[in-house]
């Protein structure tokens, strides 16, 4: 069901002690009574610890990636069943850093999505164009292809476990944010594309997060747009104060 979500992607930051501290600070400062789901995505090695700390709270845990295979000779990789076994039920897939630095393609990501869903995990699936795509006016085409090739093989029922994150690559970690109007325009396009493929019910029920240099001072305006259902936060998720201020910016 569509609802507001703010998820923090910690990337390759925070060791064990720092993870404990950041989680404690977030829990201390989080406002109560907000209609927003809060998710944090620490590194693999600290997931188990995060699940334990967050037990009996309203904050849930996501992995930042996983392998598509069930198991086997894939040195250094982590499987869906390993994540499930330590209580992780969300996974971020298709982050632009995975696509760029680890050459993850839409076809590979479609496999990862299938494996995650098979293990009853919820997927936060990232899509978004590069700067050159926007300059060449190809941004809608790029996002359309990522959606189709990564997710449109799914049946309509699977979409209850899909959350989308529109993250224009040119706005990630750059301090440059899409304007609220640019975000709304793309989120509307995404919802419309899903509606054409699956119908209104799936389109209206999927949460679409915006990601890309969201900070306490720009979150409120972006989140106020009708097709923006919260955010996927990178840099600002590493400060409890900033992250909680962003959570608080959700109407
Ligand atoms: C991200 O990496 O998902 C992200 C949105 O990063 P930042 O907020 O730092 O731009």
Automatic annotation (TrEMBL):
Positions of substrate binding: 9-11, 173, 213, 234-235
Main location class: cytoplasm
EC identifiers of the protein: 5.3.1.1
Reactions the enzyme catalyzes: D-glyceraldehyde 3-phosphate = dihydroxyacetone phosphate
Keyword flag Isomerase: yes
Subcellular location: Cytoplasm
Positions annotated as active site in the UniProt record: 95 (electrophile), 167 (proton acceptor)
Gene Ontology CC entries for this record: cytosol
CDD domains, A to Z: TIM
Matches recorded under Gene3D superfamilies: Aldolase class I
InterPro entries hit by this protein: Aldolase_TIM (IPR013785), TIM_sf (IPR035990), TrioseP_Isoase_bac/euk (IPR022896), Triosephosphate_isomerase (IPR000652), Triosephosphate_isomerase_AS (IPR020861)
Record text on subunit structure and interactions: Homodimer.
Task of the protein: Involved in the gluconeogenesis. Catalyzes stereospecifically the conversion of dihydroxyacetone phosphate (DHAP) to D-glyceraldehyde-3-phosphate (G3P).
Family affiliation: Belongs to the triosephosphate isomerase family.
Name by which UniProt lists this protein: Triosephosphate isomerase
Organism listed in the record: Flavobacterium enshiense DK69
């Amino acid at each position: 069901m569509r609802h507001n979500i703010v998820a923090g992607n910690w990337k390759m930051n925070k060791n064990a002690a720092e993870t404990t501290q950041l989680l404690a600070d977030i829990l201390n400062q989080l406002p109560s009574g907000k209609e927003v789901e809060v998710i944090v995505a620490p590194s693999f090695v600290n997931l188990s610890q995060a699940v334990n700390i967050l037990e009996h709270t309203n904050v849930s845990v996501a992995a930042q990636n996983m392998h598509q295979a069930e198991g086997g000779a894939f040195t250094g990789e982590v499987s869906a069943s390993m994540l499930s076994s330590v209580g992780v039920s969300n996974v971020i897939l298709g982050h632009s850093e995975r696509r760029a630095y680890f050459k993850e393609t839409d076809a590979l990501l479609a496999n990862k999505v299938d494996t995650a869903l098979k293990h009853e995990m919820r997927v936060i699936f990232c899509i978004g164009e590069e700067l050159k795509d926007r300059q060449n006016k190809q941004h809608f085409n790029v996002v359309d292809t990522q959606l189709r090739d990564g997710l449109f093989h799914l049946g309509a029922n699977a979409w209850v476990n899909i959350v989308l994150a529109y993250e224009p690559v040119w706005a990630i970690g750059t301090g440059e944010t899409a304007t609220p109007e640019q975000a709304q325009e793309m989120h509307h396009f995404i919802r419309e594309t899903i509606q054409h493929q699956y119908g209104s019910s799936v389109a209206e029920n999927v949460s679409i997060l915006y990601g890309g240099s969201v900070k306490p001072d720009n979150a409120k305006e972006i989140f106020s747009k009708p097709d923006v259902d919260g955010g996927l936060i990178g840099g600002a998720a590493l400060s409890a104060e900033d992250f909680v201020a962003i959570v608080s910016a959700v109407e």
